[in-house]
Amino acid sequence: MEHFQQVEPFDYVIFGATGDLTMRKLLPALYNRLRLGQIPDDARIIGAARTELSREAYVARAREALERFLPSDVLSPGLVDRFLARLDYVTLDSSRQSEQWDSLTSLFAKAQPDRVRVFYFATAPQLYGSICENLHQYGLITANSRVVLEKPIGTDMATATAINDGVGQYFPEKQIYRIDHYLGKETVQNVLALRFANPLINAAWSAEHIESVQITAAETVGVEGRAAYYDTSGALRDMIQNHLLQVLCLVAMEAPDSLEADAVRNAKLAVLNALRPITEASAATETVRAQYTAGVIGGENVPGYLEELSTPSSTETFAAVRAWVDTPRWKNVPFYIRTAKRSARKVSEIVVTFRPAATTMFGAAPASNRLVLRIQPNEGVELRLNVKNPALDVFNLHTADLDTSIRMEGGMPFPDSYERLLLDAVRGDPVLFIRRDEVEAAWRWAEPVLDAWKHNKVPMQTYSAGSYGPEQATRLLAEHGDTWHEASE
Fold it and tell me: Domains in the chain and their CATH numbers?
């Protein structure tokens, strides 16, 4: 606990305060930060939503959420009560001007004007502009305010621009915090430490030594209750355009001058701008899209995507893209980005395959070394090396893994990614948030792929639930002599 520093007093207003994100992630994250001593006694957390509830009824919901979504060993009755005492609630349709706003403005009537004020939008993105307009109209925006925007920031460049313009009309860019919870994951941040704090790794981090890079985020669950939303999004919008492109940026960027926000974000932007455009013509050779059909997960039969949706659909639940970063460091190195629902296993990882040793002294060529950074689960780093097979008298090689887990002191679980990010907004530290020009650069690259898919330039494939994806994704790598990581395990 002594490693965590308390932040200054703040007011946190969460719009969409009765929704799943707030109950499942935001409130538990804030509770954990209180448990670690980072939240001061006079901090306030104010929920706002259209649901008509008394403060007491909202507190009861919050208590139930903490008990449901946090392990019992971190819950103590006294601490839960201390946290809930900081909660307030107002019934408010934040997208409309009405007398309901009086309930919120009255809570700030005697507030100090220089007190940190964070507005968190856990609502539909199309409401962001109108909420900002109302915050301005009712005089709630101060010089020390920040606004946190949940993704998705639009569904294409036009809608992203409209959202950014709507928010930017009332908040300067320095007060806008576009959250990407992937950047809050400790093992994603460890990409920077692994690359730049280890000369051994840093010296080999280029096309001279690296053959390919894989970035995978797969899960065993389907779309279930989110089918209606997911069908308007799809795998590329939901995961690749934002989360996985951000991971690619950390892997591929040049060393920033410092860990200051703009230095890091400038380095990421340079990668996004260096991505080779995928045109409507090249999408057929550089991308794969697919939907899962019925299959078996964990020994249980599960339905296919179209069965869950109960309607025809051309939305992908699997996407794989071969990307190229056209910089001298990464010349001719393919970056394979893949995401899937109903995969054979839940895994998020970065796999760096090094070029094989140019030697014939062992007879057969040694296998390529591989560096695996496990983002989740089982967070850790694995390095596959060639060693002599001790079971044989002759000098034959086999592979051995140097495998280390990344653990918290005392065996504590990793903090949820939202925990760091929620308080970074209070601190005014935007290094793990997305700048507007990053959003626009990502859409410039992703939108032609979506257009090609929309016009059926890339056929929709299928894969059985419980598999690793369609055969076409395997062929995508085979064209360059590569294989997906699980195929080499």
Answer: 10-150 (3.40.50.720), 183-415+435-488 (3.30.360.10)
